[in-house]
Amino acid sequence: MRYTYIFIGLTPSERALLESMMALDSGGGDELVPVAKPEEANLIVANGDDASVVECLRAGNPQALIVLVGQPPRSLPFDLPVLRRPLELQAVAEVPAQLDWPEDRDTAAPASLNPVSTLRRRPCRRAPPGPSASAPR
Question: For the chain, does the N or the C end have fewer beta carbons within 10 angstroms?
Answer without folding.
Answer: C
